[in-house]
Amino acid sequence: MKRAFSSLSSRLLKSESDELKSTIEFLAKGSKRPTLSSLLDRRTSSNGNLSRKDESKHVERVLKILNSSLPEVDSKKKRVQAHYDILFSQLKDIAQQSWQKPFQNIPDNSSRQYEYLMLQQYMGKLQSIPQLAKILLSKNFQDFNRLWENRMLFDDKQQLHLSVLLYYRCRNPRIREEFEDKWLEQFKTMHISVQRLFWRCLTRENADIIQVIEETRSRMVNWTAHDTVVLYQSLYARAHLLPIPEESLSRNQQLFIMTLRILASHNLGKKWMVKLVKMSTENRLANENSAESMTITIYQYRFIRGLYLALQEVYSSCEGKRFSAELQQELQEVMASANNEEQEIKSQMSLKFI
What we know:
Elements: H1 2-14, H2 18-28, H3 36-40, H4 52-68, H5 74-100, H6 110-122, H7 129-136, H8 144-149, H9 156-170, H10 173-185, H11 192-203, H12 209-218, H13 225-234, H14 251-265, H15 270-282, H16 298-317, H17 325-352
Protein name: BN860_01926g1_1
């Protein structure tokens, strides 16, 4: 305390300011020896003739001089601020790179994939279901429990798709218990790729595939040709066991399902079926309309042309093999129908440009 007042007196005496001299007089005229509390307490003055305003000015001057003796901290503050500026600049660069090239260079490590996914979500860059599926369906991704525990960070639509993707990967029964009703109620709103996974989830562990499908369909609203095509795209390897469609299908859709049922019943392996399914997804077969007045699209022609060529390849691969006569006969019938459909589409497309 004595040292503080000594420093204070020294600084005041060195000053030529009239204001500071008046402060010295304020301190000297006190009937009592000044104390720190008496200087800082605005309610008690050593000079009864002074106004509260004058006392306040004297106190402010004293505090200013006392504070001037404290160590300089501006340089340290600036140094710390510089570190923060560098760190935030680096973070900004990382965020900008991720924003400009989202989901192009996804890490291979599961933990990093999870962190990358959450970063995209925080940044608002997780805008499509294929982006979400790309990480969750990665063979390296294993942080299922951590993602499930943090599912509330995603909106309702994302949670719906997230639950199917997670259940498909980890088969956690809690996920199905919580979301199965939502899956059935909101099936129509799911992305088509997740709709296919939905069917695989339900039929993966159940031998009676027809019963499962029939019970599931009965709980859905407004079953359409689109849903039938998606069902066959999903369970193509067991196509011959699936219910025969009762819906009104386009000619391309009929030939697609007919071909899958033939290939599956003869157990030719998945090679040709995978090729047909990929062809159907690329050409948006599920979206075709059975109405005769519908507009012919390039997708329809590409699919029927690709189907005809694929059937020719399958037919040729059966040459000279035992028990292939029945298969070749069935393929010939489908090929003839596919060729007729191709010619019909060609003629309609020609008329369209006349």
